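Example 9 (inverse folding). The structure is encoded as follows.
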């Protein structure tokens, strides 16, 4: 099959991008203005400060309520943060408790360290790892738990009690918690693992989804203060990340209370529009609704269709780009397609109209 991303990028402006959980909804016009003004004053001619430019790191720590006891490094997306964090804490033969489905690129990074992601199958109620399952999976080689909360692709998230339970396991077994909070701002409720085990938690943070900065490539890792030197010497890029992105991200965080509620409202309205269409389509359903992220999984098992075929037809015939499940699940990927809904409402409406027709026609 031709690379769908090549196909989609060649038609970038016509495509409805529901494939990568990007966010095209409105945030604040101030963000664009600040970035444009930074362009005009040629800020991009300078390197940013190594740890993060113009107080972005401090602003992020404040946003997370972690001003004391923590430090951070601004990175080229969350994906760079998990890359060098895994390098720093894992050795050959270690394992990391993780889920399947999951955001698999981190599992790949774990394998690059010679370690093993020990995957708990979660394509079943409650659609994320349970505290008992994690407890059973821990062994002498376990070095960390990868808690992606809320979880890509399912949209499930962990309650405060569950996060506490995971942290107690980490404490009892002397292991790290890698808390990937990429979708935190979309959640109805969210608890940071730092609340319970601050000294053994690393937070993986992204500006791609909440701020709609995917193309700007900006993220961070938040580290217990005393671990800073040990982790930062592994960083893949000691020269920091795009300065324009950092200027924009700082304003985005500072003004979050002015734009996030409205953005979330639209995102949640979009979910409902799709839910209605799914409910009216035979053989498909949403295992998790409402989603705590900006995406969900659409289960297609009863249709007997191949998710990659659905992806192909939607993309090639309707300019709608969703993702077949195999990208985010080795074991359950054939059961679903993943669609994100932080695209403009007219595009969501088009999806809601086309998707049932495509399923009907294909089977
Ligand atoms: C759970 C999770 N972590 C990390 C990332 C990577 O984010 P970034 O764009 O900041 O590299 C993604 C991207 O989809 C993700 O879903």
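The amino acid assigned to each position is listed next.
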């Amino acid at each position: 099959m031709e690379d769908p991303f090549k196909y989609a990028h060649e038609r970038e402006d016509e495509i409805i991008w529901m494939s990568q959980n990007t966010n095209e909804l409105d945030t604040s016009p101030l963000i664009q203005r600040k970035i444009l003004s930074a362009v005009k004053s040629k800020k991009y001619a300078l390197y940013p400060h190594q740890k993060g430019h113009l107080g972005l790191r401090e602003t992020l720590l404040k946003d997370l309520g972690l001003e004391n006891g923590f430090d951070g490094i601004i990175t080229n997306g969350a994906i760079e943060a998990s890359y060098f964090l895994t390098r720093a804490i894992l050795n050959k033969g270690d394992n990391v408790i993780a889920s399947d489905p999951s955001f698999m690129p981190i599992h790949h990074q774990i394998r690059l360290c010679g370690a093993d992601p020990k995957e708990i199958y979660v394509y079943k109620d409650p659609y994320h790892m349970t505290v008992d399952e994690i407890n059973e999976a821990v062994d002498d080689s376990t070095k960390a738990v990868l808690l992606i909360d809320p979880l890509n692709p399912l949209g499930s998230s962990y309650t405060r009690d569950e996060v506490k339970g995971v942290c107690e396991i980490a404490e009892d077994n002397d292991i790290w918690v890698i808390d990937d909070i990429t979708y935190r701002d979309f959640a109805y409720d969210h608890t940071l693992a730092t609340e319970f085990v601050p000294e053994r938690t690393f937070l993986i943070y992204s500006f791609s989804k909440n701020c709609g900065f995917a193309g700007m490539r900006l993220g961070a890792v938040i580290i217990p203060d005393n671990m800073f030197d040990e982790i930062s010497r592994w960083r893949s890029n000691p020269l920091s990340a795009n300065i324009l992105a950092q200027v924009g991200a700082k304003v985005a965080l500072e003004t979050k209370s002015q734009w996030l509620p409205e953005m979330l409202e639209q995102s949640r309205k979009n979910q409902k529009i799709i839910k209605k269409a799914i409910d009216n389509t035979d053989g498909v359903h949403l295992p998790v609704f409402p989603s705590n992220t900006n995406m969900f999984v659409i289960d297609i098992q009863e249709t007997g269709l191949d998710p990659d075929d659905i992806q192909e037809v939607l993309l090639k015939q309707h300019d709608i780009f969703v993702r077949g499940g195999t990208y985010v699940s080795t074991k359950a990927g054939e059961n679903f397609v993943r669609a994100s809904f932080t695209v403009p409402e007219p595009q969501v409406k088009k999806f809601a109209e086309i998707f049932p027709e495509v399923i009907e026609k294909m089977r």
